[in-house]
Amino acid sequence: MWCSLNKRIPNLLRRYRKTRGLNQKQAARMLGVSDTSMISRWERGICLPSAFNIFKLAVLYQTMADPLFPGLTSMARKELLERAKTLNVSKQHKIATYERR
Known about the structure:
This protein has helices spanning 13-19, 24-31, 36-43, 51-60, 65-68, 70-87, 89-99, and strands at 2-3, 47-48. The protein has 101 residues and is mainly alpha-helical. Helix 2 (24-31) crosses helix 3 and helix 6 (70-87) packs antiparallel against helix 7. The chain is elongated and about 50 Å long.
């Protein structure tokens, strides 16, 4: 789990939880998290859940992991495209094609 006090991680966790009709306590119990403070930190973007918890959140909220963290996904795409430019054009094309899906 990654946490930062000065940089927020954009996410839609709260929206998905509320859409499923869950409060933080219920979500914490379903995910096996010890208390609601961790759910709150994830939703406020202070901490990033572990990879396994991201998958559990996706299952609980009946979605894929990408929509839960749209800002993080777009930042990763931009970074990969920048790095692909230094490699060669064909690899850049593959990443750009994935971006349109």
